[in-house]
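Input.
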Amino acid sequence: MVVKVYIASSSGSTSIKKQQQDVMGFLAANKIEFEECDIAANEENRKWMRENVPEESRPAAGNPLPPQIFNDSKYCGNYEAFFDAREDNAVYAFLGLTAPPGSKEAEALARKDQE
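Output.
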């Protein structure tokens, strides 16, 4: 399973750039392997991302904007969903991955199991 982050390398939006850096920085810092898929330089990536973001996760008008996060072809969410998962110490579950032993998320899951 490969986590894929769909980004736009040449976005004019500083907000999108910061969100992309935030997601990729977090994944790198936590040694979560991911593949960066640039929708600005690769038309196939753009088409695939737009076609595979579920209807209920699309904006009311226009196309879904990066960053969009997938685990292989399974949609995980956008930046807001990632941010919420990170705040809840649930990023591994959000990404469809098993939390490594000793991580905050694994400890939180262990506490829940003991309750």
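The chain has a mean pLDDT of 94.
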